[in-house]
Design goal:
Elements: H1 3-21, E1 28-31, E2 34-36, H2 38-44, E3 48-51, E4 58-60, H3 74-82, H4 84-93, E5 96-97, H5 99-105, E6 110-111, H6 117-126, H7 141-159, H8 164-176, H9 181-195, H10 199-215, E7 240-244, H11 248-259, E8 263-267, H12 271-290, H13 296-304, E9 306-309, E10 320-323, H14 329-342, E11 348-351, H15 358-362, E12 371-376, E13 385-390, H16 396-408, E14 412-417, H17 424-440, H18 445-455, H19 461-468, H20 470-484, H21 492-499, E15 512-513, E16 523-524, H22 542-562, H23 569-580, H24 589-596, H25 598-611, H26 620-628, H27 634-639
Parallel strand pairs: 1-3, 2-4, 3-6, 7-8, 7-10, 8-9, 10-11, 11-12, 13-14
Antiparallel strand pairs: 4-5, 12-13, 15-16
Helix pairs in contact: 1-9, 2-3, 3-4, 4-8, 7-8, 8-9, 11-12, 12-13, 17-19, 17-22, 18-22, 19-20, 20-21, 22-24, 22-25, 24-25, 25-26
């Protein structure tokens, strides 16, 4: 649609909802299941709302997360119903409320089971039209102006100005308090039409569709797996799970699977490790109960589905075993040899490794076709992405069962070929090591991190290294250095910091100092100055720093496509957004390459390679794309 067509479509929706709002008879909206965006805006046009307590019931206005504003009355009606502060919380954060939260906000009148909807609706209708609420403390001009003055700088700090829809929504909601509903609807309509045509909105909408694609991904869409047939037998569900290792990742995987109704055996050789793992699981459930994600009954039931053990137990009836031990190839080889002896003939043997070779691990078993990687991200209960890593001998049926399992537990899969670092860490590590090289060359900690915050990353690279652990990062960087040689050299500064005991958050000091163990507002660590080896980069501005760290990611993402690590550019972009927080409004590294222009990317890499080293040399596929005038998303270029 062009601008005129878009505006007519939005105006028609506004007109329909206005007619509902002006009906002379009382109206009740009954909510059961997802009620988001336009669905909620229709409910706001009604006089009353009732909602079911079912877990599927989610109520919210997520439009700003798609780069647009509520356009059918959300900004106009919500502040008048729940007050300005609650309205801004829902609109600017895209907050999705469960029924009880919605009642607390004043959004729904009652929370009742669906079978009682009719009785409650009739009762409310009998009461007639409701009296209009008065929010004289917050919805007056003076209070609204004060609230806006506090919220706007918070938005600027959070978004760095990259999400204009949030500022538009704030302005419309504040202005709308002094205007009539029809006048506010006009503001909504114009803003929505303008925003929906921006690159930011287009990319955020694409991210939404990539999420939907991952939820429903089929084997026929996974081109890197050969030999799969649609005529194969129905895939059996995986209900009995075993997790080997009760550390941070093992406990997280066990908790997540148990919360999704799976029966989980959590095994470790140490009773103390089991106790710590169960305590960590209990903490996650307790926190989720406080946030009303689970009821107390559901949390208890989830804990009951976990069977902890530090002794050997038969795994013959287990559908999937997920090994989550320390990243040590020899240790994992021994574990897999033991697992194969204990597991059933159809049991999938999976590893949660983040970088080690699945093919190499499979060689320690007599049935390498049953070995696969299921790489969860930390923390498991927050990160939606899971990399399914297919070894050279992994059976297509095993891949299909694993894909179904990952989707069944509510995670979003990306299927990758076995390659050092798979997809996410393969692309992320050059970015982190480049930050290390820039630091060693005299660039300041603040400038390095602020450069990438300005780019749209959720956290600066040096701050991220502190979170990961400098020792862990140094180990992984050394692994990549051995795998890729001079193209991905490990910064010497990381090893030196490990020797000095500067391990990041876990030790209280790394690139930053964490006062009293708090991770909020850390300050740069002055001790780090002794790890600076030269002043080669001391005069680079933040744009220069940003270019260097960004370009190595774009180059490595292209190389992953060149080596067929994944099936499509969407896989790379989705994995990097969901796995690392790569600026969603930029659409992922490959789509961002298209936005810049492939020839411009190659020119920038050539220039940096001439100044520096081979780590910036453009990969062959990028040079070929320039010659052929190609891009990663040709259909989008044709449409544009």
């Amino acid at each position: 649609l062009d601008s005129k067509g878009l505006e007519e479509m939005v105006a028609e929706g506004q007109m329909v909802f206005e007619r509902i709002a002006k009906l002379n008879i009382p109206t009740v909206a009954a909510i059961h299941g997802a009620c988001l965006g336009g669905g909620l805006e229709m409910c706001l046009a009604c006089d009353y709302r009732i909602a079911s307590p079912d877990k599927s019931t989610k109520i919210g206005l997520p439009e700003t997360s798609l780069g647009i504003v509520p356009g059918w009355g959300g900004c106009a009606r919500l502040p008048r119903l729940v007050g300005l502060p609650n309205a801004l919380t829902m609109i600017l954060q895209g907050k999705r409320l469960v029924a009880k939260q919605a009642k607390k906000f004043g959004l729904v009148k009652e929370v009742v089971p669906p079978e009682h909807f009719e009785r409650w609706a009739l009762k409310l209708i009998h009461n007639g039209k409701p009296q209009k609420k008065s929010f004289w403390k917050t919805n007056n001009k003076l209070s609204a102006k004060f609230i806006a003055s506090r919220v706007r700088p918070q938005l600027q700090k959070k978004t760095r100005g990259h999400y204009p829809a949030m500022f538009k929504a704030l302005d419309i909601t504040i202005q709308g308090l002094s205007l009539s509903i029809p006048e506010t609807l006009t503001l909504e309509r114009k803003a929505l039409v303008d925003l929906i045509q921006t690159t930011t909105s287009n990319n955020l909408v694409r991210v939404f569709f990539m999420q939907e694609r991952a939820k429903h991904l089929k084997m026929k869409d996974v081109s890197i797996v050969k030999g799969w047939s649609e005529s194969s037998s129905p895939i059996p569900s995986s209900e009995h799970i075993a997790v080997i290792g009760a550390g941070t990742m093992g406990a997280g995987i066990a908790q997540w699977c148990s919360a999704r109704g799976k029966r989980v055996l959590l095994k470790d050789i140490s009773l103390d490790a089991i106790a710590k793992g169960m305590a960590a699981i209990g903490k996650v459930y307790h926190s989720a109960t406080k946030r009303r994600t689970f009821t107390k009954t559901e949390s208890r039931a989830g804990m009951d589905r976990i069977h902890p053990s530090h002794t050997d137990i038969s795994l013959a009836r287990t559908d999937i075993v997920i090994e989550a031990a320390t990243e040590n190839i020899e240790l994992k080889r021994k574990i897999f040899k033991d697992l194969e002896a204990s597991a059933g003939d159809q049991t999938i043997l999976a590893t949660n490794t983040s970088a080690l070779s699945i093919t190499e691990l499979a060689e320690s078993t007599d049935h390498p076709e049953r070995v696969i990687g299921i790489h969860f991200f930390n923390p498991v209960h927050r990160m939606q992405l899971v990399e399914i890593v297919v070894g050279e001998k992994t059976c297509p049926d095993v891949t299909a069962r694993t894909l179904q399992f990952v989707q069944n537990i509510g995670k979003m899969p990306v299927v990758t070929r076995d390659s050092p670092g798979f997809a996410v860490n393969r692309i992320l590590m050059p970015y982190l090591t480049e930050a290390g090289h820039l630091f060693a060359g005299g660039a300041s900690i603040i400038d390095i991190d602020e450069a990438m915050l300005d780019f749209g990353m959720p956290m600066g690279p040096l701050r991220l290294l502190d979170e990961v652990g400098i020792d862990v990062a140094d180990h992984v960087a050394s692994f990549f250095g051995k795998a890729f040689g001079d193209r991905m050299p490990a910064p010497e500064s990381l090893g030196a910091m490990v020797t000095e005991g500067l391990l990041g958050c876990k030790s209280g000091k790394g690139f930053y100092v964490y006062e009293k163990g708090s991770r909020k507002d850390p300050r740069p660590n002055p001790e780090c100055t002794r790890f600076v080896k030269s002043n080669a980069y001391v005069n680079l501005n933040r744009k220069d720093l940003q270019e260097r760290m960004t370009m190595v990611m774009l180059n490595e993402a292209a190389r992953c496509m060149e080596e067929k690590v994944v099936s499509s550019p969407q896989d790379i972009d989705f994995a990097m957004i969901m796995g690392t927080g790569f600026a969603p409004f930029r659409g992922g590294p490959l789509r961002y390459s298209d936005t810049l222009g492939i020839s411009n990317v190659v020119d920038a890499l050539d220039r940096l390679a001439a100044q520096e080293s081979d780590r910036f040399t453009p990969c062959a596929v990028l040079r070929s794309m320039v010659i052929q005038d190609e891009c990663w998303y040709p259909a989008d270029r044709k449409h544009t």
